[in-house]
Amino acid sequence: MAELKRTERAARAVALHLSGYNCAQAVLCAFADLIDIDERHLRRIASDLGGGISGTHENACGAVTGMVVAFGLINGYDDIADAEDKKRVYETGRGLVERFKEEFGTLTCGVLKDEIAPRYAENRHYLVTEETPKPCSQYVACAAAILDEYLCGLKPDND
Question: Which of 2, 29, 76, 77 has its CA 20 to 30 A from that of 95?
Fold first, then answer.
């Protein structure tokens, strides 16, 4: 597995997270310039997706949820009759999610927060360079970097 590079979007997502955005909001809003919805509404869309959905810590990590919502808004399908496009979106989204899971071994918020994060307490994940009281910033950075690298791969000049 190739190591993710720190991206400007990952850095922006971490900065948003440290400023008070929940994990889903931070990832989604790091891509606000690519989405035809103002950032205020993006924050509202993701407002209940943080903390493993509604703060339960039992479901998918909010950073992952924010990543797939951003992906859908940027590169999703809207023609419900187009089965091929739907398949493309599902396959790509699944690949993004699997990439995150390969990095940390799980998608579950509570496991990431309570079991995985302490392992990084002394050695912060390479995507997070500053000391932070929010261990989930590493997941925010990783999710944003995964989506950013995917989107950069779509640009014709990056062949």
Answer: 29
Asked if 51 contacts 8 with a C-beta cutoff of 8 angstroms, the reply is no
Successive 10-residue mean pLDDT values, the chain, 159 residues: 70 93 98 96 97 94 98 97 98 97 94 79 52 78 95 63
Give the global pTM: 0.87
Sign of CA dihedral 91, 44, 149, 15: negative
Comparing CA positions, the residue from 95, 145, 150, 148 lying closest to residue 125 is 145
At 108 the three-state DSSP class reads strand
Q: How far is CA 113 from each of CA 5, 8, 69, 77, 132, rounded to the nearest angstrom?
A: 22, 24, 21, 32, 14
Q: Measure CA 145 to chain center.
A: 8
Beta bridge partners of 22: none
Whole-angstrom distance between the N-terminal and C-terminal Cα of the chain? 20
φ, ψ of residue 52 in degrees (nearest 5): 70, 35
